[in-house]
Design brief:
The chain is α/β, with parallel strands linked by helices. The protein has 18 helices and 16 strands. The strands form five sheets. It has a five-stranded parallel sheet with strand order 2-1-3-6-7, sandwiched between helices. The protein has a five-stranded parallel sheet with strand order 9-10-13-8-14. Helix 2 packs parallel to helix 3, helix 6 packs across helix 7 and helix 10 packs across helix 12. The protein is elongated. The N terminus is likely disordered.
Length: 450
């Protein structure tokens, strides 16, 4: 099988703190037609893994900030299709066995001649490309996004995904809770996609978008003559979702009389259309979502207790983005790529100052806010690098220590700006600021910029 090695989409990543060896191996592989990226620490390598379409990693075992053998597990968790080759100056059988158990393609000793390394890299790259293409095909074949399409590796989001996967296989009613913009509809769609109903309709409605009477007709439909203007029968969304899944977003906004009708639907799987005298039966699964605390709404008399218990048979709390620090850059990079492609622009990469500000921002609008900000960045960018000046004017002022009239806030923003200007070079940043490098590191730690 012939594989196109040099590609703007797929690359080999070398992680080795020995610069001469890193450069030499990079040169050799480039001459073989591979697209090669370089990193000198595990942290740099994982950052590139999030940002680039990497399919093969060649990693030293002894890195300044990690053990390369253990790093294999972290790489596989982020991108399971990536193959890893471990390099070591002093190989041991125990390390070699552990590397393979962790998922490494192979474990070899530095200094092996190119006649051994190049065929090994070719084999690993070919296997990785097969797996990479299979993963792309699997995503394209899905009618609805599944759990594999949910971006994130943080404990907060993976715990929510674990719960959702378990309940997806059942027919249980699910209540998704969380702040606005946390991805509740994405989760609802994934639950449907992984359920036995996945070939049937997934019908979603935002209950807050309709007045009470209009919501009733949208959900349950009506018979001709039910009211002025009802010239013919209309099927409601409940009937459209028959044998599939009905997703009720912002269910906490439903008025009391509609709550009673929804309760009947949950209890009997039947309803009566407006203007009809006959009962219509349906076989649907209901997933509901709200950004309200429904228990408090029940206590306040705004929401029916019996409906609350029917809806919350299985509840999943979706975490706000501020609790998903490890996912912020992953999501930002995803949307930068997505909007760049849509606008026919070259892919935009984040500089260090931009990345720091992204991870320190509170994201009160969660993923929805982040997505909107990244679209703005792509529209404004004149180059292929995202820097802090592309962010909204009031973006930084929402962050802790970023009060524009507070001396510490002004200092913090200035440090971020200079870091962006120098591309993250701390020595040059300290020189431009007129402070010692040690002082800069202390301030980076103080303002949580490290």
């Amino acid at each position: 099988m012939e594989i196109k090695k040099s590609s703007a989409q797929t690359s080999i990543l070398i992680i080795d703190d020995e610069k001469k060896l890193n450069d030499l191996l990079s040169r050799i592989l480039s001459l073989e037609g591979f697209n090669v990226l370089q990193a000198y620490t595990a942290k740099q390598g994982l950052s590139l893994l999030h940002q680039e379409e990497i399919v093969l990693v060649i990693s030293d075992v002894k890195l300044p900030d990690a053990n390369g053998v253990e790093l294999v597990k972290a790489i596989k968790q982020i991108k399971p299709f990536v193959e890893v080759i471990n390099l070591t100056a002093y190989g041991t059988i125990a390390d070699g066995v552990q590397a393979i158990q962790n998922g490494a393609f192979n474990y070899i000793t530095k200094g092996d001649d190119n006649d051994k390394i190049i065929p090994l890299v070719n084999q690993a790259f070919e296997k990785a490309m097969v797996q990479f293409n299979a993963s792309l095909l699997k995503k394209k074949e899905k009618a609805n996004p599944g759990f594999d399409d949910i971006i994130g590796v943080s404990a907060a989001i993976t715990n929510a995904i674990t719960l959702a996967r378990k309940v997806a296989a059942t027919d249980t009613t699910v209540l998704l809770t969380g702040e606005t913009g946390t991805g509740k509809e994405v989760f609802a769609s994934a639950i449907h996609s992984e359920s036995a109903r996945n070939e049937k309709p997934f019908v979603a409605i935002n209950c807050s978008s309709f007045s009470g009477d209009l919501l009733e007709s949208e959900l349950f439909g009506y018979k001709a003559g039910a009211f002025t203007g009802a010239l013919k029968d209309k099927r409601g969304l409940v009937e459209e979702a028959n044998n599939g899944t009905l997703f009720l977003d912002e269910v906490g906004e439903i008025r009391p009389d509609m709550q009673a009708r929804l309760l009947r639907l949950l209890e009997n799987k039947s309803f009566i259309k407006l203007g009809d005298t006959q009962t219509t039966s349906v076989n649907i699964r209901i997933i509901a979502a709200t950004n309200r605390d429904l228990q408090k709404e029940v206590d306040a008399g705004n929401f029916r207790m019996d409906l609350f218990y029917r809806l919350s048979v299985f509840s999943i709390q979706l975490p706000p983005l501020r609790d998903r620090k490890g996912d912020m850059l992953l999501l930002a990079n995803h949307y930068l790529k997505e909007f760049s492609a849509k606008m026919g622009r070259p892919a935009i990469k984040m500089d260090e100052g931009f990345s720091r500000l992204i991870t320190s921002h509170p994201w009160k609008g969660n993923i929805r806010e982040l997505k909107n900000v990244m679209e703005r960045v792509v529209i404004l960018a004149d180059a292929t690098v995202a820097s802090v000046d592309l962010l909204p004017p009031d973006f930084a002022t929402d962050n802790t220590h970023n009060n524009p009239v507070d001396l510490a806030g002004v200092e913090r923003l200035h440090i971020i700006k200079i870091l962006g200007y120098t591309g993250g070079n701390k020595t040059e940043t300290a020189r431009l600021l007129g402070i010692g490098l040690t002082t800069l590191y202390r301030k980076l730690d103080e303002y949580k910029l490290g």
